Structure formats: C-alpha cells, structure tokens
Amino acid sequence: MVRIAAVILVVAGITGCAGIEEFTGNEPIIDTQGVDLASLEQDKLDCQAYADQVQVGRQTAVAAGTGAVLGGVIGGVFGNSSTAKRGASAGAASGAVQGAGGGLRDRQQVIRNCLLGRGYRVLN
C-alpha cells in the first residue's frame, strides 16, 4: 500500500508542478500571419491560466486508486494475497499514467479552444 501511495504522489507531483508545454513539449502552433505577437503572447498566458484549472493531480490520483482496486481484485481472483498486492501496485501505476495523460490532454484542449475562441488559427 505504501508503494501505491508513493506512485500516486510522484506522478501527481510531476503533473501538478509542470506546465503543459514543459511536460509534453507540445505548445500550440499558431498561424501568425497578420497577428500582433504581443497580443498573442498575452492571450497564451490568459489561456494557460484557464488550463491551470484542470485538476491533473486529482485525475491522476483517482485513476491510480481505481487502477489499484481493479489490479488488486484481479490479482486476488487469479492468485493469492501476494499476487493481489502486485496487481494493486501495477494497477496504481498504470492508472496514474493514464490519469495524468488524460489530464494533460484536457489542458491542451482548453488552451487550444481558448485560442480558437480568441480568433487565432491553431494549426495543431
């Protein structure tokens, strides 16, 4: 159980502290023809502030917990208590990665939608 908590804390800490571009390297590409670059930079900051409202750490923790339960149940059904513990650990790790990935995709989508809403042509 300590291992599961450690996995959740590490992944949640990484995703909670990293900005979307820093973590994924996937900043929106904007067609800058006819665009005031100073306004674009300010709008990116504003959109990033909206994206910061996505609770990546919470999504990570919930998915890790769900994965731990499912992994533990499957391990218990097909093995013994040792198998259940290993299944719970594997499920927590897998769930944490999936939860973090989903949260980061949500953040990217918020930024993209925000920039589109402000009239930019987002190319990716």
Could you explain the architecture of this structure?
This protein has five helices and no strands. It is an all-alpha fold. 31% of the residues are buried. The model is unreliable at 15-24 (pLDDT under 50).
* Proportion of residues in extended strands: under 5%
Q: Enumerate the spans where pLDDT stays under 50 for 5 or more consecutive residues.
A: 15-24
Radius of gyration: 19 Å
Count of DSSP-assigned helices: 5
Question: What is the string of SSEs from the N terminus onward?
Answer: HHHHH
- Give the helix proportion (percent range): over 70%
Q: Separation of termini?
A: 41 Å
In terms of structural class, how would the helical and strand content be classed? mainly alpha
Biggest beta-sheet profile: none
What integer is the average pLDDT? Answer: 79
Quaternary:
single chain
Overall shape: it is: rod-shaped
Q: What is the tally of beta strands?
A: 0
List strands and helices in order, with pairings.
Blueprint: H1 2-17, H2 20-24, H3 37-51, H4 56-78, H5 81-117
Helix pairs in contact: 1-4, 1-5, 3-5, 4-5
Short description:
With 124 residues, the chain is mostly helical. The longest helix is centred in the C-terminal third of the chain and has 37 residues.
Labels describing this entry:
124 residues; mainly alpha; 77% helix; rod-shaped
